[in-house]
Amino acid sequence: MKLILSEEQQFLKDTAQSFARDKTPTNHFRKLRDDGNAKCWDDSIWQEMVQLGWSGILVPEEFGGSDFGIAGISVIMQELGKTLTPSPLLATSVLGVSTIKLLGSDEQKKNYLPKIVSGEATTALAVDEGNHHSPFDIEATATLEDDKWILNGQKVFIIDGASADFILIVARTSGKKGESNGLSVFIADKNSTGLEVSQISTADCRNYANLVMSNLTLNAEALLGEVDIAGEIIEQVLDLGRIAMASEMLGNTEEAFEITVSYLKERKQFGVLIGSFQALQHRAAKMFCEIELTKSAVLAAMHAADENSNELERLSSLAKFQAGETLHLVSNEAIQMHGGIGVTDEYDIGFYLKRARVAEQIFGTSEYHQARYADISGF
After folding, report:
1. Which residues, at least 6 apart from 366, have a Cβ–Cβ distance to it below 8 Å?
2. Do 352 and 252 touch, CB atoms closer than 8 A?
3. Could you read off the pLDDT of 144-189 as tens digits, one per residue?
4. What is the CB neighbour count within 10 angstroms for residue 280?
5. What is the spatial distance between Cα 35 and Cα 298, in angstroms, rounded to a whole number?
């Protein structure tokens, strides 16, 4: 497995880098936060991403996409992560597209995928029900009555759930909590009767929501694919999401590191640059090494996904674990090396710490993936 990007992937990465620097620098995120934007992302910026074809990178060509692979969208996520760019790219173009593509019927793919490619629709995936990520601990139920599905239960911490046009809901149609079998996925319009979506506030000022289903009634066509078979597919979708998320976290880490190194080169203490202090140099060197290790882990996971490798589960957990550990380290060190000003709102570096603490929880913490990696590896 080559731990390098192809020429096409590098071109896409360069394009995303220019876009992020020119269109969505960090002050773009700051303005959205200060303006109290309800979606927490900018419609016009999202449409520009759509025009660049990013919304359809994982969509097959027959439905209007480019089918460029998880590596393609991951390098975009990495560059957007450097400037903390908020967008529905992860929730819609990774999680939503992958779920519909892997589970949906031909008719459902024809109905929803072109709408995602054109920017007409955004999606969110509702899986977790507790305080910790556990994709099979599903108690929300779906019961078939007179050709209608009746859903009851709740979901928490749904990425971009407050702005999504359609919500993909994982519910239990058989079996019991903790089992991977007996799970099905339903697609519901956000305005459906019996569906209550509540936006929640988090430290990173992004778009998340909880939802409650009270006799949510859906047509038979709302079931994606067949009943009871979604468990393994959802785990695969989450693995793709973990890789994309790890890529964004890598971008967060790289930028936080660069900001910190620049500060070490300009801040003086006792009349000398603090970057000349050997202790800080050692700490910076450790961060650099961990970032290089993270790059390798993320690249390996990206290629495993695109090559349909049997190592996908193991490498996606490795990427998410390593990205989480490195971002935690670098965001902490960044704040400490900046000193007291690092936690003031005037400096951007504090945004990276807040993003880190939330991103570490998405799709499983480092502890979750350490245990999952060990289990998959037979330890």
Report:
1. 320, 321, 324, 325, 328, 360
2. yes
3. 999 999 999 999 999 999 999 999 999 999 999 999 999 999 999 9
4. 18
5. 34
Whole-number Å distance between alpha carbons of 244 and 197 = 25
Instruction: Say yes or no to pLDDT of 2 above 90.
Output: no
Longest dimension (CA), the chain: 79
Cβ contact 312:232 at 8 Å: no
Q: What tokens does 151 get?
A: 């859903």
Of 213, 222, 223, which is closest to residue 193 (Cα–Cα)?
Answer: 213
Q: What is the pLDDT of residue 3?
A: 78
The backbone torsions φ and ψ at residue 101, rounded to the nearest 5 degrees and listed phi first, read -65, -40
Question: What tens digit of pLDDT does each residue of 321-366 get?
Answer: 999 999 999 999 999 999 989 999 999 999 999 999 999 999 999 9
Q: What is the mean pLDDT of the chain?
A: 96
Joined together, the tokens standing for residue 37 give: 């934007």
Distance between CA atoms of 222 and 82, rounded to whole angstroms? 37
Enter the DSSP assignment of 42.
Answer: -
DSSP character at residue 126: E
- Residue pair 155/200 in contact by the 8 Å Cβ criterion: no
Domains of the chain: 7-121 (1.10.540.10), 124-228 (2.40.110.10), 231-376 (1.20.140.10)
DSSP class of residue 312 equals H
The CA distances from residue 363 to 127, 166, 246, in Å, are 10, 20, 10
Q: What percent of the chain has pLDDT over 70?
A: 99
- pLDDT beyond 80 at 13: yes
* Predicted model pTM: 0.97
Report the alpha-carbon distance of residue 150 to residue 259 in Å, rounded. Answer: 51
What per-residue confidence (pLDDT) applies to 1?
64
Closest to 124 measured CA to CA, from 39, 10, 34: 39
Q: Where are the beta strands (DSSP E) in 162-286?
A: 166-172, 183-189, 195-200, 208-219, 268-269, 272-273
